[in-house]
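FORM 12-B: Structure-to-Sequence Request
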């Protein structure tokens, strides 16, 4: 097949992957990265613990490597993430004074979004803000600043990076359910209030055989609010070792996700959360599961790779 990125561009969408720059020294990893993708997001390198491990002391090494790699392959650069409860240093976690936390959040956004202003095309400004029942996750930002922290972060990010699209991103929001409906209502309110919001990301950490039937309809309802949508962290896990039948089911699932995006005008594309099964967060977190990505641990394309190529109409 022709590269995913070439086939995708005929549809006006981009194909992304989450990059861990230390893996670029592996030939197989780098070759797939260079050939297939036209959007790069840092798997970890732009998170708070990586960029501002102690207050006001920034470290840009890995984040700069991600930005440089994106530029070297003429890919979009996607920013992940400015405000998130996880991979958040303890010194932020322990702040209880709202004035102090607001200053710290603003300073972080100014520094990180500001550094990559003009390079990052879109930012996950706030990541994972909801509980499954549609209530707000009780992160330090929520507890100390209240509901308004989301609008504050978006507004600050607009000032720091005026040309970047500003997104909210979450998991288990792929179907129409309580959590995605909470996100939907928030986005509608933010738009009504004139808060800058351009896009919503759907992580799509899925389980084989469980692509939600309402996926496309869900993407469409957000698009109808006037924001872009994107599949931001796609992987589809299964029990390992995987059977040939599992890999075929996974291929059908990957195809269904890409088709859902292509069916929605404002879907900007699909990002996979890694490249190969040898470097995936899944086995570390879900014991006994894995094989979630389109390439195996030897960088050989799996049936999911071909299914995506075919969904994109690759020649
Ligand atoms: O860098 C250290 C290393 O020095 C240390 O020796 C090693 C031992 O545990 O840990 C390394 O850090 C790990 C880091 O990944 C880099 O590999 C952390 O422990 C580990 O927790 C971290 O996991 C990341 C996870 O986010 C953290 O929440 C995964 O790589 C990353 O794929 C995952 O990505 C998230 C998205 O950001 C948000 N959505 C869900 C998604 C999957 O959890």
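FORM 12-B RESPONSE
SEQUENCE OUT:
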């Amino acid at each position: 097949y022709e590269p995913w990125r070439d086939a995708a561009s005929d549809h006006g969408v981009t194909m992304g992957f989450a990059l861990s720059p230390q893996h670029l020294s592996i030939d197989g990893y780098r070759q797939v990265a260079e050939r297939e993708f036209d959007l790069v997001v840092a798997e970890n390198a732009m998170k708070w613990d990586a960029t501002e491990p102690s207050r006001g002391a920034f470290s840009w090494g890995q984040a700069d490597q991600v930005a440089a790699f994106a530029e070297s392959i003429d890919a979009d650069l996607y920013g992940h993430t400015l405000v998130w409860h996880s991979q958040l240093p303890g010194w932020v976690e322990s702040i209880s004074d709202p004035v102090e936390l607001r200053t710290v959040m603003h300073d972080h956004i100014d520094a990180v979004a500001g550094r990559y202003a003009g390079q990052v095309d879109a930012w996950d400004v706030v990541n994972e803000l909801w509980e499954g029942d549609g209530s707000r996750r009780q992160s330090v930002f929520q507890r100390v600043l209240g509901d308004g922290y989301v609008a504050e972060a978006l507004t600050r990010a607009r000032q720091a990076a005026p040309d970047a699209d500003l997104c909210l991103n979450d998991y288990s929001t792929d179907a129409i359910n309580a959590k995605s409906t909470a996100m939907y209502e928030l986005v509608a309110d933010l738009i009504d209030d004139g808060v800058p919001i351009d896009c919503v990301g759907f992580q799509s950490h899925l389980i084989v055989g469980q692509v939600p039937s309402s996926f496309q309809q869900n993407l469409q309802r957000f698009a109808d609010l006037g924001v872009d949508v994107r599949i931001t962290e796609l992987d589809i896990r299964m029990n390992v070792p995987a059977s040939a039948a599992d890999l075929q089911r996974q291929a059908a699932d990957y195809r269904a996700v890409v088709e859902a995006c292509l069916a929605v005008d404002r879907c900007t594309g699909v990002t996979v959360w890694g490249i190969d099964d040898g470097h995936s967060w899944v086995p570390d977190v879900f014991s006994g599961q894995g094989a979630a990505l389109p390439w195996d641990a030897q960088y050989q394309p799996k049936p999911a790779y071909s299914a995506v190529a075919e969904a994109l109409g690759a020649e």
